[in-house]
Amino acid sequence: MVEAQSWTTRRSSNPRLETSVDIPSTPTGEHRYGPTNNFFNPSFISPTIITALIIASWYFSNIGVLLLNKYLLSFYGYKYPIFLTMLHMLACSFYSLLAIRWFQVVPFQQILSRRQFFKILALSGIFCFSVVCGNTSLRYLPVSFNQAIGATTPFFTAIFSFVITCKKESAEVYLALMPVVFGIVLASNSEPLFHLFGFLMCVGSTAGRALKSVVQGLLLSSESEKLHSMNLLLYMAPMAAMILLPFSLYIEGNVLSVTLEKAKSDSFMILLLVGNATVAYLVNLTNFLVTKHTSALTLQVLGNAKAAVAAVVSVLIFKNPVTVMGISGFAVTIMGVVLYSEARRRLKGTAH
Questions:
Q1: Which residue of 56, 179, 336, 350 shows the fewest CB atoms closer than 10 Å?
Q2: Where are the transmembrane segments (predicted)?
Q3: Whole-angstrom Cα distance, residue 321 to residue 191?
Q4: What is the per-residue pLDDT across 115-141, written as a single tens digit (0 to 9) for each?
Protein backbone atom coordinates (compact mmCIF):
# COMPACT_ATOMS: atom_id res chain seq x y z
CA MET A 1 0.00 0.00 0.00
CA VAL A 2 1.32 3.45 -0.91
CA GLU A 3 2.31 5.45 2.14
CA ALA A 4 0.41 8.55 3.22
CA GLN A 5 0.97 11.36 0.74
CA SER A 6 1.97 14.98 1.38
CA TRP A 7 2.73 18.01 -0.72
CA THR A 8 6.42 17.98 0.10
CA THR A 9 8.94 17.01 -2.54
CA ARG A 10 11.37 14.15 -2.28
CA ARG A 11 14.63 15.11 -3.93
CA SER A 12 15.70 11.56 -4.64
CA SER A 13 12.50 10.43 -6.32
CA ASN A 14 12.25 10.45 -10.08
CA PRO A 15 8.70 9.42 -10.86
CA ARG A 16 7.49 9.02 -14.40
CA LEU A 17 4.22 7.50 -15.46
CA GLU A 18 3.89 5.04 -18.25
CA THR A 19 0.63 6.15 -19.73
CA SER A 20 1.11 5.17 -23.26
CA VAL A 21 -0.99 2.13 -23.99
CA ASP A 22 1.52 -0.42 -25.20
CA ILE A 23 -0.23 -1.64 -28.40
CA PRO A 24 1.54 -3.73 -31.06
CA SER A 25 1.62 -2.02 -34.46
CA THR A 26 -1.16 -2.82 -36.90
CA PRO A 27 -1.59 -2.31 -40.66
CA THR A 28 -2.57 1.22 -41.57
CA GLY A 29 -6.17 2.27 -42.03
CA GLU A 30 -5.78 2.60 -45.80
CA HIS A 31 -4.65 -1.01 -46.02
CA ARG A 32 -7.30 -2.61 -43.81
CA TYR A 33 -10.22 -0.23 -43.46
CA GLY A 34 -10.10 2.08 -46.43
CA PRO A 35 -8.89 5.68 -46.78
CA THR A 36 -8.74 7.82 -43.65
CA ASN A 37 -9.49 11.49 -43.21
CA ASN A 38 -6.75 13.79 -44.58
CA PHE A 39 -6.76 16.05 -41.51
CA PHE A 40 -3.22 14.91 -40.65
CA ASN A 41 -2.07 14.80 -44.28
CA PRO A 42 -2.76 18.16 -45.95
CA SER A 43 -1.97 18.16 -49.68
CA PHE A 44 -0.26 21.57 -49.69
CA ILE A 45 2.61 20.37 -47.46
CA SER A 46 5.44 18.16 -48.67
CA PRO A 47 5.13 14.54 -47.45
CA THR A 48 8.74 14.72 -46.21
CA ILE A 49 7.95 17.77 -44.09
CA ILE A 50 4.80 16.09 -42.73
CA THR A 51 6.77 12.97 -41.76
CA ALA A 52 9.48 15.09 -40.09
CA LEU A 53 6.85 17.05 -38.14
CA ILE A 54 5.13 13.86 -37.02
CA ILE A 55 8.41 12.32 -35.82
CA ALA A 56 9.26 15.57 -33.99
CA SER A 57 5.79 15.51 -32.42
CA TRP A 58 6.34 11.91 -31.37
CA TYR A 59 9.55 12.86 -29.55
CA PHE A 60 7.94 15.98 -28.07
CA SER A 61 4.98 14.05 -26.67
CA ASN A 62 7.04 11.14 -25.31
CA ILE A 63 9.66 13.35 -23.68
CA GLY A 64 7.04 15.97 -22.76
CA VAL A 65 4.87 13.56 -20.78
CA LEU A 66 8.01 12.43 -18.94
CA LEU A 67 8.93 15.99 -17.96
CA LEU A 68 5.38 16.98 -16.99
CA ASN A 69 4.90 13.86 -14.89
CA LYS A 70 8.23 14.44 -13.21
CA TYR A 71 7.37 18.05 -12.43
CA LEU A 72 3.92 17.18 -11.10
CA LEU A 73 4.91 14.19 -9.00
CA SER A 74 8.24 15.39 -7.67
CA PHE A 75 8.76 19.15 -7.87
CA TYR A 76 5.16 20.32 -7.75
CA GLY A 77 4.36 17.77 -5.07
CA TYR A 78 1.33 16.03 -6.58
CA LYS A 79 2.07 12.55 -5.25
CA TYR A 80 -0.88 10.60 -6.59
CA PRO A 81 0.41 8.63 -9.60
CA ILE A 82 -2.52 6.19 -9.84
CA PHE A 83 -5.12 8.98 -9.83
CA LEU A 84 -3.05 10.93 -12.36
CA THR A 85 -2.94 7.86 -14.60
CA MET A 86 -6.72 7.58 -14.31
CA LEU A 87 -7.02 11.19 -15.48
CA HIS A 88 -4.81 10.29 -18.42
CA MET A 89 -7.12 7.42 -19.32
CA LEU A 90 -10.19 9.65 -19.11
CA ALA A 91 -8.47 12.13 -21.42
CA CYS A 92 -7.57 9.32 -23.83
CA SER A 93 -11.24 8.27 -23.86
CA PHE A 94 -12.42 11.79 -24.70
CA TYR A 95 -9.75 12.58 -27.29
CA SER A 96 -10.08 9.14 -28.94
CA LEU A 97 -13.80 9.64 -29.36
CA LEU A 98 -13.18 13.10 -30.80
CA ALA A 99 -10.46 11.87 -33.19
CA ILE A 100 -12.40 8.86 -34.48
CA ARG A 101 -16.01 10.11 -34.58
CA TRP A 102 -15.39 13.78 -35.40
CA PHE A 103 -12.08 13.95 -37.31
CA GLN A 104 -12.38 10.38 -38.63
CA VAL A 105 -8.68 9.69 -38.17
CA VAL A 106 -9.55 6.01 -38.62
CA PRO A 107 -12.91 4.34 -39.35
CA PHE A 108 -14.93 3.60 -36.21
CA GLN A 109 -15.19 -0.07 -35.21
CA GLN A 110 -17.77 -1.45 -32.81
CA ILE A 111 -17.37 -4.25 -30.29
CA LEU A 112 -19.28 -7.10 -31.91
CA SER A 113 -19.78 -9.52 -29.04
CA ARG A 114 -19.72 -9.94 -25.29
CA ARG A 115 -16.75 -12.27 -25.76
CA GLN A 116 -14.77 -9.54 -27.50
CA PHE A 117 -15.73 -7.06 -24.76
CA PHE A 118 -14.37 -9.29 -22.00
CA LYS A 119 -11.17 -9.89 -23.98
CA ILE A 120 -10.57 -6.14 -24.18
CA LEU A 121 -11.43 -5.83 -20.48
CA ALA A 122 -8.80 -8.49 -19.67
CA LEU A 123 -6.20 -6.53 -21.66
CA SER A 124 -7.17 -3.38 -19.74
CA GLY A 125 -6.58 -5.24 -16.47
CA ILE A 126 -3.10 -6.33 -17.52
CA PHE A 127 -2.35 -2.79 -18.63
CA CYS A 128 -3.43 -1.40 -15.27
CA PHE A 129 -1.19 -3.88 -13.46
CA SER A 130 1.74 -2.70 -15.54
CA VAL A 131 0.98 0.97 -14.89
CA VAL A 132 0.53 0.54 -11.13
CA CYS A 133 3.81 -1.37 -10.84
CA GLY A 134 5.59 1.20 -12.98
CA ASN A 135 4.29 4.17 -11.04
CA THR A 136 5.16 2.53 -7.73
CA SER A 137 8.69 1.79 -8.92
CA LEU A 138 9.22 5.38 -9.99
CA ARG A 139 8.80 6.56 -6.41
CA TYR A 140 12.09 4.80 -5.65
CA LEU A 141 14.13 4.73 -8.88
CA PRO A 142 15.53 7.51 -11.10
CA VAL A 143 14.01 7.92 -14.55
CA SER A 144 17.26 6.97 -16.30
CA PHE A 145 17.42 3.60 -14.53
CA ASN A 146 13.71 3.06 -15.14
CA GLN A 147 14.30 3.59 -18.86
CA ALA A 148 17.10 1.04 -18.83
CA ILE A 149 14.87 -1.58 -17.22
CA GLY A 150 12.02 -0.74 -19.58
CA ALA A 151 14.29 -1.45 -22.55
CA THR A 152 14.27 -5.15 -21.57
CA THR A 153 10.66 -5.56 -22.77
CA PRO A 154 11.73 -7.75 -25.76
CA PHE A 155 13.33 -10.20 -23.31
CA PHE A 156 10.05 -10.68 -21.43
CA THR A 157 8.09 -10.78 -24.68
CA ALA A 158 10.21 -13.69 -25.91
CA ILE A 159 9.71 -15.52 -22.60
CA PHE A 160 5.92 -15.07 -22.57
CA SER A 161 5.66 -15.98 -26.24
CA PHE A 162 7.40 -19.27 -25.53
CA VAL A 163 5.52 -20.04 -22.29
CA ILE A 164 2.03 -19.06 -23.47
CA THR A 165 2.06 -19.79 -27.21
CA CYS A 166 5.05 -22.19 -27.40
CA LYS A 167 6.50 -19.93 -30.07
CA LYS A 168 10.23 -20.42 -30.48
CA GLU A 169 12.54 -17.80 -31.90
CA SER A 170 15.74 -18.47 -33.80
CA ALA A 171 19.03 -18.92 -31.99
CA GLU A 172 20.14 -15.55 -33.37
CA VAL A 173 17.18 -13.81 -31.70
CA TYR A 174 17.86 -15.45 -28.33
CA LEU A 175 21.56 -14.59 -28.55
CA ALA A 176 20.66 -10.96 -29.24
CA LEU A 177 18.73 -10.87 -25.95
CA MET A 178 21.82 -11.79 -23.90
CA PRO A 179 23.32 -8.27 -23.93
CA VAL A 180 19.88 -6.90 -22.96
CA VAL A 181 19.98 -8.85 -19.70
CA PHE A 182 23.72 -8.37 -19.15
CA GLY A 183 23.37 -4.60 -19.55
CA ILE A 184 20.68 -4.41 -16.87
CA VAL A 185 22.76 -6.52 -14.47
CA LEU A 186 25.67 -4.16 -15.07
CA ALA A 187 23.53 -1.04 -14.60
CA SER A 188 21.83 -2.43 -11.47
CA ASN A 189 25.11 -3.20 -9.72
CA SER A 190 26.36 0.33 -10.28
CA GLU A 191 23.13 2.36 -9.80
CA PRO A 192 23.73 4.89 -6.95
CA LEU A 193 19.98 5.12 -6.17
CA PHE A 194 19.20 1.42 -6.51
CA HIS A 195 16.19 0.33 -4.46
CA LEU A 196 15.23 -3.37 -4.39
CA PHE A 197 11.47 -2.87 -4.06
CA GLY A 198 11.45 -0.21 -6.75
CA PHE A 199 13.52 -2.47 -9.00
CA LEU A 200 11.09 -5.38 -8.53
CA MET A 201 8.11 -3.15 -9.27
CA CYS A 202 9.79 -1.84 -12.41
CA VAL A 203 10.54 -5.37 -13.59
CA GLY A 204 6.88 -6.23 -12.92
CA SER A 205 5.79 -3.25 -15.00
CA THR A 206 8.05 -4.22 -17.88
CA ALA A 207 6.88 -7.83 -17.74
CA GLY A 208 3.27 -6.59 -17.67
CA ARG A 209 3.75 -4.66 -20.91
CA ALA A 210 5.25 -7.72 -22.57
CA LEU A 211 2.46 -9.96 -21.25
CA LYS A 212 -0.21 -7.62 -22.60
CA SER A 213 1.44 -7.63 -26.02
CA VAL A 214 1.44 -11.43 -26.18
CA VAL A 215 -2.05 -11.84 -24.73
CA GLN A 216 -3.42 -9.25 -27.12
CA GLY A 217 -2.14 -11.19 -30.11
CA LEU A 218 -3.69 -14.34 -28.63
CA LEU A 219 -7.10 -12.97 -27.62
CA LEU A 220 -7.74 -10.74 -30.63
CA SER A 221 -6.38 -13.15 -33.22
CA SER A 222 -9.46 -13.65 -35.39
CA GLU A 223 -10.07 -11.13 -38.18
CA SER A 224 -13.57 -10.36 -36.89
CA GLU A 225 -12.22 -9.36 -33.47
CA LYS A 226 -9.14 -7.40 -34.50
CA LEU A 227 -9.33 -3.69 -33.79
CA HIS A 228 -7.29 -0.82 -35.14
CA SER A 229 -4.92 0.47 -32.47
CA MET A 230 -6.82 3.77 -32.16
CA ASN A 231 -10.16 1.96 -31.76
CA LEU A 232 -8.61 -0.38 -29.20
CA LEU A 233 -7.42 2.66 -27.23
CA LEU A 234 -10.95 4.10 -27.44
CA TYR A 235 -12.34 1.04 -25.65
CA MET A 236 -9.41 0.27 -23.34
CA ALA A 237 -9.00 3.77 -21.91
CA PRO A 238 -12.39 4.02 -20.14
CA MET A 239 -12.10 0.42 -18.93
CA ALA A 240 -8.65 1.20 -17.51
CA ALA A 241 -10.01 4.33 -15.81
CA MET A 242 -12.75 2.32 -14.12
CA ILE A 243 -10.24 -0.26 -12.92
CA LEU A 244 -7.83 2.39 -11.62
CA LEU A 245 -10.45 4.42 -9.74
CA PRO A 246 -11.02 1.99 -6.82
CA PHE A 247 -7.28 1.31 -6.56
CA SER A 248 -6.61 5.04 -6.37
CA LEU A 249 -9.28 5.63 -3.72
CA TYR A 250 -8.08 2.68 -1.65
CA ILE A 251 -4.33 3.23 -1.92
CA GLU A 252 -4.16 7.01 -2.21
CA GLY A 253 -6.98 7.83 0.21
CA ASN A 254 -8.72 11.20 -0.11
CA VAL A 255 -6.99 12.01 -3.39
CA LEU A 256 -10.11 13.53 -4.98
CA SER A 257 -10.76 16.03 -2.18
CA VAL A 258 -7.07 16.92 -1.95
CA THR A 259 -6.92 17.51 -5.71
CA LEU A 260 -10.02 19.72 -5.68
CA GLU A 261 -8.73 21.67 -2.67
CA LYS A 262 -5.36 22.21 -4.34
CA ALA A 263 -7.04 23.28 -7.59
CA LYS A 264 -9.09 25.90 -5.74
CA SER A 265 -6.00 27.50 -4.19
CA ASP A 266 -3.78 27.12 -7.27
CA SER A 267 -5.38 27.41 -10.72
CA PHE A 268 -2.04 26.58 -12.33
CA MET A 269 -2.59 23.01 -11.20
CA ILE A 270 -5.63 22.69 -13.48
CA LEU A 271 -3.50 23.76 -16.44
CA LEU A 272 -0.84 21.25 -15.46
CA LEU A 273 -3.29 18.36 -15.15
CA VAL A 274 -5.12 19.15 -18.40
CA GLY A 275 -1.88 19.69 -20.31
CA ASN A 276 -0.36 16.54 -18.85
CA ALA A 277 -3.37 14.42 -19.79
CA THR A 278 -3.46 15.92 -23.29
CA VAL A 279 0.20 15.14 -23.93
CA ALA A 280 -0.41 11.60 -22.63
CA TYR A 281 -3.00 11.11 -25.38
CA LEU A 282 -0.67 12.63 -27.99
CA VAL A 283 1.80 9.83 -27.21
CA ASN A 284 -0.74 7.31 -28.49
CA LEU A 285 -1.85 9.45 -31.43
CA THR A 286 1.70 10.08 -32.65
CA ASN A 287 2.50 6.35 -32.27
CA PHE A 288 -0.24 5.69 -34.82
CA LEU A 289 0.77 8.57 -37.10
CA VAL A 290 4.45 7.54 -37.18
CA THR A 291 3.46 4.00 -38.16
CA LYS A 292 0.99 5.35 -40.75
CA HIS A 293 3.48 7.69 -42.41
CA THR A 294 6.60 5.52 -42.07
CA SER A 295 6.54 1.92 -40.81
CA ALA A 296 6.35 -0.17 -37.67
CA LEU A 297 10.12 -0.69 -37.94
CA THR A 298 10.70 3.08 -37.88
CA LEU A 299 8.59 3.35 -34.73
CA GLN A 300 10.66 0.57 -33.17
CA VAL A 301 13.92 2.35 -34.03
CA LEU A 302 12.58 5.64 -32.67
CA GLY A 303 11.55 3.82 -29.50
CA ASN A 304 15.07 2.51 -29.00
CA ALA A 305 16.51 5.99 -29.44
CA LYS A 306 13.82 7.54 -27.22
CA ALA A 307 14.89 5.46 -24.24
CA ALA A 308 18.40 6.90 -24.49
CA VAL A 309 17.18 10.45 -25.12
CA ALA A 310 14.75 10.30 -22.19
CA ALA A 311 17.48 9.02 -19.90
CA VAL A 312 19.85 11.82 -20.93
CA VAL A 313 17.15 14.48 -20.52
CA SER A 314 16.20 13.19 -17.07
CA VAL A 315 19.82 13.31 -15.91
CA LEU A 316 20.34 16.82 -17.28
CA ILE A 317 17.15 18.21 -15.75
CA PHE A 318 16.71 16.23 -12.54
CA LYS A 319 20.44 15.88 -11.77
CA ASN A 320 20.25 12.30 -10.49
CA PRO A 321 23.74 10.79 -10.06
CA VAL A 322 25.02 8.36 -12.68
CA THR A 323 28.16 6.24 -12.98
CA VAL A 324 30.27 5.18 -15.93
CA MET A 325 29.29 1.57 -15.27
CA GLY A 326 25.62 2.52 -15.20
CA ILE A 327 25.90 4.35 -18.53
CA SER A 328 27.81 1.41 -20.00
CA GLY A 329 25.13 -1.01 -18.82
CA PHE A 330 22.40 1.10 -20.37
CA ALA A 331 24.35 1.29 -23.65
CA VAL A 332 24.81 -2.49 -23.70
CA THR A 333 21.08 -2.98 -23.13
CA ILE A 334 20.14 -0.61 -25.95
CA MET A 335 22.66 -2.34 -28.23
CA GLY A 336 21.04 -5.68 -27.39
CA VAL A 337 17.58 -4.30 -28.21
CA VAL A 338 18.87 -3.03 -31.58
CA LEU A 339 20.44 -6.42 -32.33
CA TYR A 340 17.19 -8.13 -31.32
CA SER A 341 15.15 -5.89 -33.64
CA GLU A 342 17.54 -6.53 -36.51
CA ALA A 343 17.47 -10.29 -35.93
CA ARG A 344 13.66 -10.27 -35.92
CA ARG A 345 13.62 -8.22 -39.12
CA ARG A 346 15.95 -10.64 -40.91
CA LEU A 347 13.89 -13.57 -39.65
CA LYS A 348 10.70 -12.06 -41.07
CA GLY A 349 12.46 -11.28 -44.34
CA THR A 350 13.59 -14.89 -44.65
CA ALA A 351 10.10 -16.16 -43.85
CA HIS A 352 8.63 -14.08 -46.64
A1: 350
A2: 39-60, 80-100, 120-138, 144-164, 171-187, 193-211, 232-250, 270-290, 297-318, 324-341
A3: 8
A4: 999 999 999 999 889 977 887 777 778
